[in-house]
Design a protein that fits this description.
The complex is a heterodimer of chains A (236) and B (292). With 236 residues, chain A is α+β, with helices and mostly antiparallel strands. Chain A has one domain: Yope Regulator, Chain: A (2-Layer Sandwich). Chain A has helices at 8-24, 50-65, 73-85, 124-130, 133-139, 143-146, 167-172, 175-180, 186-191, 209-218, 229-235, and strands at residues 30-32, 41-49, 92-102, 107-115, 147-151, 158-162. Chain B is of the alpha/beta class and 292 residues long. Helix content of chain B is 39%, strand content 14%. Chain B has helices at residues 2-30, 64-67, 69-76, 102-110, 137-156, 159-163, 166-177, 181-191, 233-240, 270-277, and strands spanning 33-40, 54-59, 88-91, 94-95, 117-122, 205-209, 256-258, 284-289. In chain B, the strands form 2 sheets. A 5-stranded mixed beta sheet of chain B has the order 2-1-5-3-4. In chain B, helix 7 (166-177) packs across helix 8 (181-191). Classes of the chains: A alpha+beta (236), B alpha/beta (292). At the A-B interface, strand 5 of A face helix 5 of B. Chain B: It holds the Pfam family ATG5_HBR. Chain B: This is Autophagy protein 5. Chain B: One of its GO terms (biological process) is autophagy of mitochondrion.
Chain lengths: 236, 292
């Protein structure tokens, strides 16, 4: 946990707690068990209405046009593909999100697919066009190390994957982990009493809060809806 | 005292010799080629003139998208210009995953079949529920590097790959892409170094089962026990796919085990296999093939 990773058994506990939390908040995360010894995964389906994303995409373009100097040729092309992408005949995109544990990285991994109403998968370019502009510019140098299509480790079918190699460092530097540091020194613990809302030691940490923290930081990139109440309840 | 020195010198001599021979093994594996005959799917031929089949010797360690540019250009002239999409490959109704090394696909589907390997080329009805899209070589590179990173995460907690520079990563990729053994192994050697004396933290391996086709099996498995015993291929298989053993006591298998085109003895230490029989993506890809 201190290094931002979690073990498979902690992940399994987190999954159960998270699904309970989801039910409390009337969200629709479901637990799916894998057939062999793997610890299972959670999934959620969601519809994306195009008029909503149309608005977002255009606002993103206004934003980035202010920084036109920083746009690379590639980004300009992508912007053009944004406008092409937003076709009136595509109304609703259905999304499927999975959270799966990676043994190799000891962290949760987000897999997802998005489908047109024809049932056809969105392409990588189309997925990128849905990524909010603020993340697009930040990730422009790392496109291929951040989001790629991969074989789903449990289903064996193609899914898009947010690459897990940065997850541990993200979680290491998260507020939650910083708040757990006092466990090393009591003096600092007292000094940090002001942030007691999140200053649980790993063992006292509310179950499910690792997933809440991680998922809420990656969700906006891939249009995954996540209520703010997750944070409130998860940290009480 | 003399005796001890003699023994240790002899051990060094043996070790050096073994290492030299082992390097030859790396070279042999790198030089492996698969003779392939590519044919355009007959129901997708649009022109009156039928294209000739296309013959290639494809490196086992490579990926199809790195080898099939000319196949694609040639066959594209014979398909409906208004109705074609991304190229994909099929062997006996089995779509071939481009993100697996060519040698692994060959072991999985044609290890007992005739040569050349007859592969059908399609430009329609891309099976996107089975195959990853391959929009460009960037996709292949991204997939390759992600797999190398994952392997190093298992072997060295990613310390080796993360300590490398971007140009080293690039050299790995270009070495593979251009089929340059020395260029590739100059960098890959570092990824194959052991942490301490014993071995890797975990073994990067995937077990691919054919018929029925299932998602590959990948688990945490230490190549060396805490007491320093080297685990063998038999140990690995018993731990991960016990059902392939005929019974609990003997090492008789219900299927054949292929790694890099050969059936390695089951008593081979997996640490050695990982160092010498891994594909360039740094994973030991094991194909379980039913006896025909």
């Amino acid at each position: 946990m201190v290094d931002g990773t979690i073990s498979a058994s902690v992940f399994a506990d987190e999954l159960h707690a998270f699904v309970e939390l989801s039910a409390t908040l009337k969200d629709t995360w479901q637990l799916a068990m894998a057939n062999d010894s793997k610890c299972g995964y959670i999934s959620k389906r969601q519809l994306l209405k195009l008029d909503q994303h149309l608005a977002d995409v255009s606002s993103g373009m206004v934003e980035s046009s202010l920084e036109v100097d920083e746009l690379t040729e590639q980004e300009v092309e992508d912007e053009e593909s944004n406008t092409i992408q937003v076709k009136p005949q595509t109304r609703v995109i259905s999304c499927e999100y999975h959270v799966v544990y990676s043994d190799s990285y000891s962290v949760p991994v987000l897999y997802f697919n998005m489908y047109h109403d024809s049932g056809k998968l969105l392409t990588l370019d189309e997925i990128w066009s849905l990524v909010p502009q603020i993340y697009q510019s930040r990730l422009s140098q790392e496109r291929w190390t951040f989001l790629t299509q991969q074989e789903h480790p449990i289903l064996g079918r193609p899914y898009f994957q947010l690459h897990p190699c940065h997850t541990a460092s993200l979680m290491k530097h998260s507020v939650l982990s910083r708040a757990t540091k006092p466990e090393i020194s009591t003096d600092t613990a007292q000094g940090l009493a002001g942030v007691s809302a999140t200053s649980h030691t790993p063992s006292m940490r509310r179950k499910g809060s690792y997933l809440v923290q991680w998922l809420s930081s990656v969700a906006p990139v891939v249009r995954l809806g996540m209520s703010l109440e997750y944070g409130l309840i998860g940290n009480n | 005292m003399q005796l001890i020195i003699d023994t240790s010198i002899r051990q060094i001599v043996i070790k050096t010799k073994v290492m030299a021979e082992d390097r030859e093994i790396l070279r042999e594996i790198w030089d492996g080629r698969v003779p392939i005959c590519f044919s355009l799917a007959s129901d997708e031929i649009f022109t009156l003139e039928h294209p000739d089949p296309f013959f290639l010797l494809v490196p086992r360690q490579s990926y199809f998208p790195l080898a099939t540019d000319r196949v694609q250009r040639t066959f594209l002239k014979h398909v409906d210009p208004d109705n074609h999409g991304e190229m994909w490959l099929e062997y006996e109704s089995q779509p071939l995953k481009w993100h697996y090394p060519v040698g692994l696909l060959f072991d999985m589907y044609n290890s007992k079949g005739p040569l050349p390997w007859n592969i059908t080329v399609h430009f329609q009805n891309f099976p996107e529920d089975e195959l990853l899209h391959c929009p460009s070589r960037d996709a292949v590179e991204a997939h390759f590097m992600a797999t190398v990173k994952e392997a190093d995460s298992l072997k060295h907690r990613a310390q080796v790959i993360n300590s490398m520079q971007k140009k080293d990563h690039k050299q790995l990729w270009t070495g593979l892409q251009n089929d340059k053994f020395d260029q590739f192994w100059t960098i890959n050697r570092k990824l194959m170094e052991r942490l301490g004396e014993e071995g890797f933290k975990y073994l990067p391996f995937r077990i691919h089962q054919v018929l029925p086709e299932k998602p590959f099996i990948q688990k945490l498995f230490k190549p060396v026990s805490d007491e320093g015993r080297l685990f063998t291929l038999a140990d690995l298989l018993r731990e991960t796919v016990p059902h392939i053993f005929a019974d609990d006591t003997s090492d008789v298998l219900r299927c054949e085990v292929y790694i890099q085109g050969v059936n390695p003895p089951l008593e081979t230490p997996v640490q050695w296999l990982s160092e010498h029989f891994s594909y360039p993506d740094n994973f030991l890809h094991i194909a379980l093939v039913n006896p025909s």
